[in-house]
Amino acid sequence: MLKKLSIGFATLALTVASAATTYHVTLFQPSFINGAELKPGEYKVEISGDKALLWRGKNSTEAPVKVENTERKNQTTVVRYGPGSQVQEMRIGGTKTKLVFAHESTGATPVGQ
After folding, report:
1. What residues form DSSP beta bridges with 33?
2. What's CA 68's distance to the chain center, in Å?
3. pTM for this one?
4. pLDDT tens, 44-83?
């Protein structure tokens, strides 16, 4: 009975662990993701499906993200910025993971509508 219970908890723990992946990323400048300003510092980035949750202390923000694989393992973590310090992608050091962040809509009406 105890053995079955232990196996059940181990299986549950593996299932929960595989549901989300967490990385550590350091931002060296003020940055924007999904309209939220992130101050420089170390953040935890948790990926669950097509969502990224970034948090530092009690502050957090969620953003849509696309997870892609690079051809080679990323030597270091690299954050790529667009206009206005908007984070476009993060390549996670020591992995083949690339996180591509969706851009926040500006609220402008598309041409022809």
Report:
1. 36
2. 11
3. 0.74
4. 999 999 999 999 999 999 999 999 999 999 999 999 999 9
Q: How far is CA 24 from CA 27, 44, 46, 47, 78, in A?
A: 10, 5, 9, 11, 12
Collapse the DSSP code of 62 into the 3-class scheme (helix H, G, I; strand E, B; otherwise coil) and give the result. Answer: strand
| HSE, side-chain direction, 13 A CA sphere, residue 75 | 0
Kindly report each contact of residues 65-71 with a partner whose C-beta sits within 8 Å and lies 24 or more positions away, as own/partner: 65/99, 65/100, 65/101, 65/102, 66/99, 66/100, 66/102, 67/97, 67/98, 67/99, 67/100, 68/97, 68/98, 68/99, 68/100, 69/96, 69/97, 69/98, 70/96, 70/97, 70/98, 71/96
